[in-house]
Specification:
By secondary structure, the protein is an alpha+beta fold. The protein has a single domain, classed as Gcn5-related N-acetyltransferase (GNAT) (Aminopeptidase, 3-Layer(aba) Sandwich), CATH 3.40.630.30. The protein is built from 4 helices and 7 strands, in the order βααβββαβαββ. It has a 7-stranded mixed sheet with strand order 1-2-3-4-5-7-6, sandwiched between helices.
Length: about 150
């Protein structure tokens, strides 16, 4: 059973474990604390059987959402949790009359690219040498929303 709620500072130790297992350049605890204080930020966590299993961070800037971070604990992947988070964010965007959602993803992350393409995200650009750990490029993906 899963439950979605707003992120709290007390969630950060669990988030850091997921962050480190999911990303080559994990955010720091301070990054998440900053997000919790930022006015444009929305930060959600998912609980699976009362244990934090996923999270999402995005910004709402004008009529656009910027998806900054989404991660699911390895032992609960392939259960539709990321899909549910993304669907909830898209519903939120629709409710707020948001025009588009943008994100960056490593060109090496084929699984994520396939997931986002399946959701209707299209590549609109490249950020060369974006990732320090391997100097790979970031693909800039955008999904236009039809609700406006």
């Amino acid at each position: 059973m899963t439950k979605l709620r707003d992120m709290k500072a007390s969630d950060i130790p669990d988030i850091m474990q997921i962050e480190k297992e999911c990303f080559n350049e994990p955010w720091t605890a301070d990054n998440f604390l900053y997000e919790l204080r930022k006015k444009v930020a929305h930060n959600w966590v998912v609980l699976c059987d009362n244990k934090l299993c996923a999270y999402m961070c995005f910004w709402e800037i004008g009529s656009e959402l910027q998806l900054n971070n989404i991660a699911v604990r390895k032992d609960v992947r392939r259960q539709g949790i990321a899909q549910k988070l993304l669907d909830r964010m898209i519903q939120y965007a629709s409710d707020q009359h948001i025009k588009s959602i943008t994100l960056e993803v490593s060109e090496q992350n084929r699984t994520a690219i396939k997931f986002y393409n399946k959701q209707g995200f299209k590549q609109i650009g490249i950020r060369p040498l974006y990732y320090d750990y391997d100097l790979s490029n970031a693909l800039i993906l955008t999904k236009k929303l039809e609700n406006v």
